[in-house]
Amino acid sequence: MIVTIRDIAEKVGVSVTTVSRVLNNRGYLSDGLKKRVHEAMEEMNYQPNEVARSLSRKKSNILGLIIPDISHPFFAQMTKHMEYYAYKHGYKLMLCNSLLDKKKEKEYIDLLRASQVDGIIMGSHTMSVKEYLSIKLPLVTLDRQISESIPYISSDNYRGGSLATQLLLRKNCNKIAYLSGNLQLNMLAKQRHDAFVRQAKGKGVEYIVKQTDMNGFQYKKYENLVRELFQEHPDIDGVFASSDMLALQVVRECRRLGKSVPDQVKVVGYDGIQIGGTEDLTTIAQPIKEMGRLAVQHLLQQIAGEETPLETILPVKLLEKGTT
Amino acid sequence: MIVTIRDIAEKVGVSVTTVSRVLNNRGYLSDGLKKRVHEAMEEMNYQPNEVARSLSRKKSNILGLIIPDISHPFFAQMTKHMEYYAYKHGYKLMLCNSLLDKKKEKEYIDLLRASQVDGIIMGSHTMSVKEYLSIKLPLVTLDRQISESIPYISSDNYRGGSLATQLLLRKNCNKIAYLSGNLQLNMLAKQRHDAFVRQAKGKGVEYIVKQTDMNGFQYKKYENLVRELFQEHPDIDGVFASSDMLALQVVRECRRLGKSVPDQVKVVGYDGIQIGGTEDLTTIAQPIKEMGRLAVQHLLQQIAGEETPLETILPVKLLEKGTT
Predict the structure, then answer these.
(1) Contact yes or no for B276 and A277 at CB 8 A
(2) Would you call B252 and A276 a contact, using CB atoms and an 8 Å cutoff?
(3) DSSP states of A46-74 as a string?
(4) What does the pLDDT look like over A107-136, one tens digit per residue?
(5) Start and end of every HTH lacI-type domain (chains A, B) (predicted)?
(6) Which of A152, A247, B68, B141 is the most buried (most CB within 10 A)?
(7) What share of chain A is helix, strand, coil (3-state, %, to 5)?
(8) Which of A193-207, A217-231, B54-68 has the lowest mean pLDDT?
């Protein structure tokens, strides 16, 4: 229950104007009256109304964050950093999981707009470009380039794809696979795939591409995808998985099939998440913290009416560990 | 930038009252005027002001969630479910990571109150009971019993601790260890420890207890804790870790030391998170989804002024897998 100055006025038995004068320390007021008003405010736990002030300031100091699924470690880790930087600058974060549901994504944008958020960080991308352009709020996207007017933050997906594939080829893999989420989502992550295909073709090495359907992050689906891969292509000896979670499934399936990693099958993941089980995984590490920090920074710059770089592509790093 | 009816009025060149009449379809208004107002609203992307309405309704439809760290999979997974249920009931979730920093926790409560959230779910517990009691907002806590007036959601920590320890004893472990976060945090999770000690004493089996310092979830600290354990007690043959993340570190350290799991060392985790690497882990599974759902439900009941159960203790389940 929100306590307003009207409630305080009723409690003390004075007018709203009088309470307002006490609050703003305006006009002549007896010490006794001031004391009674302050005591009532304390007792009723009155808070200077941030919502009312946000109306007059036209700012809510809330940022909306729309991501596919907070339970995915990549997003959980990035969100942690976003929340940290938002807080540091006096902003709160409203969390929205789209679960890659187009309808939910759209509804969330309307909800966030109605809640007067100052801006949105968009990490879920099932809507059309037209729908994005109609948002008309400060906006930063993650890993998707919507138009030339909406800034995005990404890491160097093409280079990441090249580094991963080159490593598999350097280790003399003869038949390699690329595993990923749905490629039709029109994400910049598709460049990992493009780099993979280009490298494989360039070396004349046989390759396979497999992707999940649109409903991304379900571990059961990852499991099936990996199982299918080895059933259809038992001679695969190198796998580039577009997330560490997917790569862990590959390692697990190899263990189940009695294929030794890295001797018989080499595995490279993507993301560089810090989570149990990934310690020995060769991976392409994205600068998750820096991506989160810059997403917030560029959104705040927009909100302040400052210039914001439209393209931010951060470097990735190959971490060679036990699975290659 | 928030567009108000004042902006619309200026744009169209009419009074605020006129715009308000158009919005509420009150009084006589020419079709031409209505059309001009509606066009201006569309062009300026005016949204019926949820913030202003929340002021008059005294409701914001926002719930605050304060947890230690969203990047910890247990909280990430529970938050996913909370967000789902909040959304289903027309509420948004404001995410706050306390990082177990007492000052930040306190500041967040003030921030949330100032933002007029309708209630708070509290999963981070560094504050004193007195500070909790002064919150004076609908409140539900996770895994901590603050007072007899604040409802909490928990799972059966004592039974979880008993199940885990009994399993190690049944498997004929001779020297067992309990590993956990800091026990002084005064969480209900401490009951896992109590059950462990009681079971071990009951059977007359040698036991060790090791805990991290107050700054919980840092994987590096987990690593050091586990390393220390085996340096100081190389003859440990059973470990009960109070989280799956910690249990994974134990399995990893055993691998590093050339101790086979489960033959030489048996490992039981806690939580039942779904994350790569935990597939073969014997663990005590908490009903994460149900805990998240009930936390939201009991908070919404409080907000609606309905009766809420003060104690909610959900059952846990032993999942026996490859590490015991």
Answers:
(1) yes
(2) yes
(3) ----HHHHHHHHT---EEEEEES-TTSHH
(4) 888 888 888 899 999 988 777 777 878 888
(5) 3-57
(6) A247
(7) 45, 20, 35
(8) B54-68
How do A238-241 and A266-271 pair as beta strands?
A: parallel
B157-286 homologous superfamily: Response regulator (3.40.50.2300)
Residue to mutate among A44, A100, A108, A115, with most B CBs inside 10 A, is A115
Homologous superfamily assigned to A60-154+289-314: Response regulator (3.40.50.2300)
Is it the case that residue B198 has pLDDT exceeding 60?
A: yes
Which CATH number fits the domain B59-155+289-315, given the four candidates 1.10.569.10, 3.40.720.10, 3.90.1010.10, 3.40.50.2300? Answer: 3.40.50.2300
Ordered by start, the domain boundaries in chain A are 5-48, 60-154+289-314, 157-287
Neighbours of B32 (CB within 10 A): 8
Neighbours of A60 (CB within 10 A): 22
Q: Which of A83, A111, A112 sits opposite B95 (nearest CB)?
A: A83
Give residue for tokens 């059950």: B195
Which helix (DSSP H) or strand (DSSP E) does residue B177 occupy?
Answer: strand B175-180
According to CATH, what is the number of the domain B5-48? 1.10.260.40
pLDDT tens-digit readout, B77-131? 999 999 999 999 999 999 998 887 888 888 888 888 888 899 999 988 777 777 8
* For residue A262, cis peptide bond before it (omega within 30 degrees of 0): yes
pLDDT digits (tens, 9 = 90+) for A53-112: 554 556 789 999 999 889 889 999 999 999 999 999 999 999 998 887 888 888 888 888
Span A157-287 CATH architecture: 3-Layer(aba) Sandwich (3.40)
